[in-house]
Structures are given as C-alpha cells and as structure tokens.
Inverse folding.
C-alpha cells in the first residue's frame, strides 16, 4: 500500500506540494502502480466496497434496465386487459396496482436512475477527472436506490402494491379509503428513494464545480454535463417537496396528524400542490440529461460540432427554471381561479421556446453535417421527431380551456409517453449503442441494432399515436375496462398490438446487448472518432481513468486541428502529458468557473460503510412501515454509528494545496 | 320521460361535438391547435428527412470537419423566432377562449348541487329559483338554452364532473366547493363520466345530462319533486306491497324513497327510479331484468362497489321488481 502522506512528521501533515507534470506510458511501472492504487479487488468483497464511479454507474444502468423491463411487463398486462371492451383478465384492484406500479417503476426506478448511470460513469471521464467528488456517497446513493426499489416491490408478491396511482391523491390514499400497507410502502419508499436522489444530486453539482480538468471552463463542458447539472440543481430544490408530502401522508395515516384529513381541518388540495411542485420539475430532470446525450453524441455522427452550443446550454437551464413555475398545469381542473390558471398556462407554453432552440440546433447539426448512418444516429434522429410530437401535444394541453377536456384522458397518456419514451428511452438506447464500446471494449451489432430501432419506432408509434385519438374521443385515464358502445374499441386494440411490437423491439435490443458482450467486434479507444475526453482512454477505461491529468483547450480535445472554430489561438489540449497525481488515490480540484488547478483531492479507499449505512437505513424504513418503534430506534443507532465511522477523520484524506502549478494554456 | 340518447358513435367525443356555449369555443380552439400541431410535425419531419437525405460532399475520415459557418446559427434564430410567434398567437387565442368559457354570458337561471360519491352522483335541485327542491341521482335534467350553474362537492375522495359535449371538467374535492356551468343549445341526452381516479369503480361512474325545452323540464321537475305514490291497482298491488316491505327491510338502510319510511342517505335516491334511462351510474339501461341483475349480482357487475349482491328468492325478486316498477 503506497504511503498516503507526503514525507512529514505524523503530527503535522504538509499542506503544500509541488505538482509535477509528466507522462505515464501505457504498460510502464508507474501505470501499473496507478492501476493497483485504484483497482477494486475482485469478488464479493470488492463488490460491496467499491467506490469506483464506473462500476457504480454500470450498476445503475443494469438495475434501471431491469426496472424498465418490469415496468414494461406491467404495461403489457394492462394492454391485454384493455385490448377489448369489458375484458375480465384483471380485477379492478389488480389493474389499479399495475397502473400505479407501472408509473412508479418507470418514473422513479428507471427514468432517473438510467440517466444517473450514464452520468456517473461518464462525468469523470468527460471532465478529465479521476472520480466523482464523493465516491463513498456515490456508492451509498446506489445502494439506497436499490434498497428503496426492493422496498417498493416487496409489496407486490403480497398483493399489497400501491394502488392509488403514482400521483397518489388524497383522500383516496389516506387511511380511510386505503387501509392496507400499500400506501405506507409507497410513502416510506419514496422518502428513502429521495435520500438517494438528493445525495446523488449533491455529488454531481460538487463534481462539476470542483473537478473539471484544468482549462475546461464552463463553456467547454459537454452538454450532458449541462443537462445533468441542471437536473441535479432541480432535484435539490424539488425532491424536498415530495419527501415532505409523503412524510406528511404517512404521518396522517399512522401517527395521527391531519395535514390532508378533511374531516379534521386538513386540505385535500394541499397534496396536489406539494406533489406537482415536485413532479413537474421531475419530468424535466428525467429528460434534460438525455437531451444532453443527444447533443453530445449526435454531432459525432454528423461529423461536426453541435450547432449553437451556447444557446443549447442556455435552453437547458431555461427549461429547468421555467419548469418550476408550471406545476398548476396538472391542476387546471381543480377549481382554481381562471386568472391564476392563465399565468401557468402561459408559462407552460413559454417552456416550448427553449425546446425549439434545441430542436433547431439538432436539425441544423444534421443538415450542415455529413450524417453517418450508424445505429446511434437512427435513435437520435428518431428522437427529434418524437420530441416534437410530444412537445406539440404538450402545447395543446397547455391551452387551459382545451385542457379542461384533455386532462385525465388518454390524450395526456399519449403526450407523456411521447415525451418520456421519445426523450428518455430513445436517446438512452442510442446512448447505449454509442458508449457500449467504451464501457465494454466491444461494438454492438449494426444489423441487429437497426432492426431493433425500426421495430421499436414503428411499434411505439402504432401503440401511442392512437392514444391521442382515444383521448379526443373522451376515453378517461385509469379505467380498468370500458363498454363496447363508447367508440374506443378499435383504437385500444391497435394500441395493444403496437405495444407488443414495441416490446419486441426492446427485446431485440436486449438480445443484441447480451450477444455483443461476448461476441461483439473488439473496439479500440475511439471507434466512432468522437471528440470528447472519454474517448482518449482505453475501452474499457482503466480504473484510474487518466494516468496524468489532461489539460483542455477546447470543447472537443480529440478533434483539435480538424475543427476550424476551435483553432482560434492555437493552444492545444494536452492529453498525454499533464499533472501527475500518484501519491495514493488522488484527484485534482479546480476552480469553479475557469477550472484552474486549486487543490489536490485525497480520494477515499474502497469502503463497506456506504453499504452498511444503506442497509441500516432500509431496515429503519422497514421498521417504520411496521410501526416497530424499538426496531426503528435500534436501526437509527446503527445509522448513527455508520455515519460516525464514515466521517471519522483520516489523516490520509487531508487535502493539499499545490504549491506551484503550471496553468493550462488559454 | 327521458329524451332519447344522442346517436353518437362515441358519446364522450368532445373533439367533434360541442353542444353548448360552455365548450363550443373550446372545440374550435382544439381544431386550431390540432391543425397547428400537425403542421409543425409535418414541417419538422420534412426538415429531418431532407437534412438526412440531401446530397452533400462526402467527408473523409480524419480530414477537416464540415466547415463551420455563420449561417448555422440562423437555423436557431429563425426556427425559434417562428416558434415563438406561433406560441404567442396560440396563447392569445387560448386566453380569449378561456375568457369566453370560464363563466356564462348571462346569469345562470338554475343552480344544482352535484355531490360525487364512490361511485355515483347525487343531484340536488334547490329552490333558489322558485322551483321545487328535491334530490335525485345520476340523471340531471336542464332546460335548453339557459346557463345552469353546478355546485360541485364530494362526499369522500376526489372525483371529477365531466360532461364533455357540454363543458370541460372540474374536480369535486372533499372539504371545498367548486363550481362550473353548462348549457345545452338543443334538446338531447349528453353522457358524462367521472374523470379523476377515485378507486375501484372509477371506470363505471357515469351520468347523463338531459336537456329539455323549458315546459318539459318544468314538468319533469314537478314530477320529481313529488313523493312516491303507488298506484291503487288490484292484484298487482299485493305483490308490490310485499315488495315495498322487502325494500324497507333490505334496502332502506342505504336508499331513500320519499313518501315512505325509507330514508337511507348513503346510496342513490330511488323515489322516481322508473323515470331514469340508466341505472348503476350508467352501467346498464333501466329495465326490470337489469334492475334485478344489479340487485342480485352487483359485485359481479361492479366489483368492490358499495352495493352488495343481495340474495333473493324468486318470489321476493318478483315482488321487489313489482314495487320498483311503481316508482315512476
């Protein structure tokens, strides 16, 4: 084990150190030493204690896809029930649990975690860093997510899954009308999940502000970073609202408070406000990083940089900000005064303007570039069309009086699936095809990938476009069946058929994934000839990411010299030569705006503490669900001890200022 | 007598049918928005296809990328500019429409209170306009050509009142009172449905609004306000009398029949059951067979609804049916 401190007396750690520049060749002894410092040992011990962002990111991706499949199966069962009028495949209670869990699964257990997975894996690599700012917190956020998901799903085999919709309106979700443990599971599970989301957001924000490679000023970071950073700030502001709402609901149900209890002075509408103040920003949280994926990867397949980087970055922030003042558009029919509704309706239309900026940036990038017809390009081009369809149907629902007809019909179901699948799932799958070579060292299949795209694209549109029509014909949401004389039979049959085609497409994609893991063509470092930093490492990247800290001089370090707009003042990024940080696990901290080197960050070793703390936290919430107060106290003590162990000061983690630093050029 | 049901393929179709001023401007807005949206989709699809398919000089790997150019940003400016103009126009049109449907042009001539229950609709006609006050369920009558104010309440969870061909929807929220207005231009029957998820039988919580000429409406209202009066009629009377006793024993705990001792308040008022077109909140047409089916097999027709399946011998069933037939 390398000496963690510089040569000094144990009593007074030295706080300054010269930061040398140099090279570390692949295969050299220095490189082997770095690898040994950073590598997680194999086996279950390493599995439980790793803090490597790449492994954590991969876990998020795999777990999220498992829940995509589970949520998809829930949907397919519902589509069997709805394919024909007056079907009896499901009882009303079964249907209600299925549609609730379908929403909960897709929105909370797939849509954000999959983007957390991409961001976790990629951020340090695209920022030129060795890891995220808080590696142990990173591991903790994954474990809590996993345990919260298990907590939510544990209710299913007992037939007690949440059944009041993912939006869980009171009083239906209150104790009087929903006596079982279903809603308690939902409420506590969401509070637990909120912990994961919050610490994850903190990690992203601090990493962005402190760990970019020297020279990577804010206007040079990839758009995925803008997307995830904006989403993380959004999360920090919004998640407390829903955690509070669910905590208040649980307290009403089990402790005896009356926040929402109408009979005792509570207000039912309060739930809707608290929920939607969170849930509307949330839907932007689950799409902005995916839009960032497209903004970064699409240009690679157009052989040119993104058109309008600045406006696109601005539009990301504008979307998130406006997204905080539109929540009432989920509540247009609640009896609020028309004047108030007008403001929110106007904001809901205004939010389409930043979306237009991004859409035209993407179209221009394709138009002015030279498209390369590889699989990721298909998914990104398809995404642009689905984004626009989802966007215009959203503008239709923003029109207040028309929304009084559209809301709570299948028109909204069509809209939300166009935006959620179109803006999250399609870019995610394109992103998987794009970064699979980097993650695994192998390419996925071009032929199977294109087949998967077409089957998915056709299946998706056949399934969801008719839902607009069903909605315009008056079909309400959340009904387990319908009469044959309502005029909805044909569109429902078509939708059900399309949904199975879509599922087939996803299955084809998953088969390609599994096949390519073993048999894919071996990929080099940069099979797509892309321009950002992650493509300068091996595929898969080494555990330390970068042997020396790169210095960055443009948005596309690997395209320098080939893109005219970047070669303004002739400075070039330096990838093979840079600051050497090898006295233990170390990373470089830089200033927030211009990324000047600032501090040597001592990174923690692998640790079991995040896992142990998350186990105690999950068991604590299980105790709350069972109202087992002694158990809760014991688990609370366990959490406290784990936190103390985690935060116990370690000499080796004291940060050091670099004494002399050579600035990056430009 | 109820007016015949509107002969539409899709009774909740508000996109093609607006039967009153509370929603006619909205339907026009909907068409405009749909046309605009479809145009935008077509234009963007065309741009995408052309962008992808258009012929261009091939770029060799490793060589200079496509020239960067000042014209690139023009795409963003022009596209965003056009989108913004269209959005502002849409917004103005929307706000104008909102203004015209948010409240009626003249004061409502009638006010009703609708209280939503799991999973049926209580309808209270008050006497503020001088007409008689009474309660009924699931079938609302209004006079043609006059704005009607609906005061909306809930007895349990959040529901939403929606009769799409006459107006948009409004939630009924326990602990507070909402209101909306409806108006029908022509006589007819307009279907409504609960449109806020409210539990197990949300799917089967429908109602009808019957618009009648003023004279017919007043006659209906007068008839509804009267208590139940069984006809004096020979042999049938004995069976109906037995049925009335059965009703008192088995049904009166929940249901009301004004003019008798049945004063249950948790279920629909059945005083004039025979005058309604549908039963069980729109689940079935109102025939003696369907009535008995509902009474004996409610949990099969609407599982988990609050109406139990009531076991009746054949004789009892015939008696009850005969009694219910007198509730016209």
């Amino acid at each position: 084990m390398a000496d963690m401190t510089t040569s000094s007396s144990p009593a007074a750690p030295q706080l300054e150190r010269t930061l040398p520049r140099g090279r570390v060749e692949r295969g050299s002894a220095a490189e082997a030493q770095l690898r040994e410092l950073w590598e997680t040992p194999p086996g279950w011990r390493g599995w439980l204690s790793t803090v490597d962002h790449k492994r954590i990111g991969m876990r998020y991706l795999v777990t999220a896809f498992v829940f995509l499949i589970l949520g998809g199966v829930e949907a397919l069962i519902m589509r069997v029930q709805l394919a024909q009028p007056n079907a009896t495949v499901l009882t009303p209670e079964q249907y209600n649990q299925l549609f609730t869990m379908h929403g909960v699964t897709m929105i909370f257990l797939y849509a954000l975690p999959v983007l957390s997975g991409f961001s976790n894996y990629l951020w340090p690599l695209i920022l030129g860093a060795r890891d995220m700012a808080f590696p142990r917190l990173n591991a903790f956020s994954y474990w809590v997510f996993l345990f919260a998901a298990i907590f939510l799903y544990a209710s299913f085999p007992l037939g007690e899954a949440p059944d009041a919709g993912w939006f869980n309106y009171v009083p239906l979700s209150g104790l009087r009308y929903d006596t079982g443990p279903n809603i308690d599971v939902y409420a506590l599970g969401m509070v637990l999940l909120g912990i994961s989301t919050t610490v994850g957001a903190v990690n992203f924000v601090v990493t962005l502000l402190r760990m970019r490679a020297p020279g990577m000023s804010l206007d040079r970071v990839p758009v995925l970073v803008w997307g995830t950073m904006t989403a993380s700030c959004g999360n920090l502001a919004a998640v407390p609202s829903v955690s509070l709402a669910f905590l208040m609901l649980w307290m009403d149900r089990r402790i005896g408070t009356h926040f929402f209890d109408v009979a005792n002075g509570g207000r039912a509408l309060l739930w809707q406000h608290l929920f939607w103040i969170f849930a509307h920003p949330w839907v932007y949280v689950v799409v902005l990083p995916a839009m960032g994926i497209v903004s970064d990867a699409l240009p690679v397949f157009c052989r040119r940089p993104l058109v309008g980087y600045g406006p696109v970055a601005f539009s990301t922030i504008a979307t998130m900000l406006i997204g905080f003042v539109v929540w009432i558009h989920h509540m247009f029919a609640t009896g609020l005064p028309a004047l108030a509704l007008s403001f929110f309706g106007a904001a809901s239309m205004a939010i389409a303007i930043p979306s237009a900026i991004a859409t035209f940036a993407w179209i221009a990038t394709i138009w002015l570039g030279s498209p390369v017809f590889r699989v990721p390009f298909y998914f990104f081009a398809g995404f642009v069309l689905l984004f626009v369809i989802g966007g215009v149907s959203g503008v239709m629902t923003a029109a207040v009086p028309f929304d009084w007809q559209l809301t709570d019909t299948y028109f909204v179901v069509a809209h939300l699936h166009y935006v959620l699948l179109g803006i999250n799932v399609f870019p995610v799958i394109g992103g998987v095809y794009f970064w699979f070579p980097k993650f695994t060292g192998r390419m996925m299949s071009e032929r199977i990938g294109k087949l998967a795209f077409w089957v998915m694209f056709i299946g998706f549109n056949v399934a969801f476009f008719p839902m607009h029509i069903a909605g315009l014909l008056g079909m309400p949401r959340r009904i387990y069946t319908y009469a044959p004389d309502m005029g909805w039979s044909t569109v429902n049959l078509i939708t059900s058929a399309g949904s199975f085609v879509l599922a087939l497409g996803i299955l084809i994609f998953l088969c390609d994934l599994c096949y390519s893991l073993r048999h894919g063509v071996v990929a080099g470092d940069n099979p797509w000839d892309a321009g950002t930093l992650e493509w300068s490492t091996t595929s898969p990247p080494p555990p330390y990411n970068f042997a020396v800290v790169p210095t960055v001089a443009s948005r596309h370090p690997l395209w320098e010299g080939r893109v005219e707009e970047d070669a303004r003042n002739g400075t070039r990024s330096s990838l093979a030569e840079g600051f050497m940080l090898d006295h233990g696990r170390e990373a470089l901290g830089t200033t927030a705006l211009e990324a000047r080197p600032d501090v040597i960050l001592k990174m923690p070793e692998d640790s079991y503490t995040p896992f142990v703390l998350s186990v105690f936290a999950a068991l604590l919430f299980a105790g709350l669900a069972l109202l087992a107060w002694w158990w809760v106290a014991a688990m609370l003590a366990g959490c406290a001890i784990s936190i103390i162990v985690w935060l116990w000061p370690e000499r080796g983690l004291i940060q050091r200022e670099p004494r002399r630093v050579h600035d990056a050029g430009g | 007598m109820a007016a015949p049901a509107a002969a539409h393929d899709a009774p909740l179709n508000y996109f093609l049918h607006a039967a009153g001023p509370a929603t006619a401007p909205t339907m026009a807005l909907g068409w405009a928005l749909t046309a605009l949206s479809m145009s935008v989709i077509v234009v963007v699809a065309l741009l995408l296809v052309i962008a992808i398919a258009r012929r261009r000089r091939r770029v060799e790997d490793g060589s200079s990328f496509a020239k960067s150019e000042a014209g690139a940003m023009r795409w963003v400016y022009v596209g965003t500019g056009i989108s913004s103009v269209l959005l502002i126009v849409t917004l103005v049109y929307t706000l104008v429409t909102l203004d015209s449907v948010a409240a009626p042009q003249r004061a409502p001539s009638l006010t009703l209170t609708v209280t939503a229950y799991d999973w049926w609709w209580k309808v209270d006609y008050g006497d503020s306009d001088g007409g008689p006050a009474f309660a009924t369920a699931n079938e609302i009558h209004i006079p043609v050509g006059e704005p009607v104010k609906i005061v909306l309440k809930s007895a349990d969870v959040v529901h939403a009142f929606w009769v799409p061909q006459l107006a948009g929807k409004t939630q009924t929220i326990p602990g507070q009172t909402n209101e909306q207005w409806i108006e029908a231009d022509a006589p007819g029957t307009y279907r409504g449905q609960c449109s806020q998820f409210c539990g197990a039988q949300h799917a089967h919580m429908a109602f009808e609004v019957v618009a009648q000429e003023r004279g017919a409406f007043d006659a209906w209202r007068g008839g509804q306000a009267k208590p139940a009066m069984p006809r004096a009629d020979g042999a049938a009377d004995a069976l109906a009398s037995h049925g009335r006793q059965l009703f008192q024993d088995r049904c009166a705990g929940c249901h009301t029949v004004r003019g008798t001792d049945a004063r249950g308040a948790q279920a629909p008022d059945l005083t004039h059951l025979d005058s309604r077109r549908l039963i069980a909140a729109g689940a079935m047409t109102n025939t003696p067979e369907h009535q008995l089916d509902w009474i004996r097999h409610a949990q099969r027709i609407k599982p988990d609804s609050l109406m139990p399946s009531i076991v009746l011998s054949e004789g009892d069933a015939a008696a009850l049916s005969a009694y219910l037939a007198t509730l016209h």
Residues 234-324 of chain B form a domain with the Immunoglobulin-like fold (CATH 2.60.40.420). Chain B is about 35% helix and 20% strand. The longest helix of chain B spans residues 72-102.
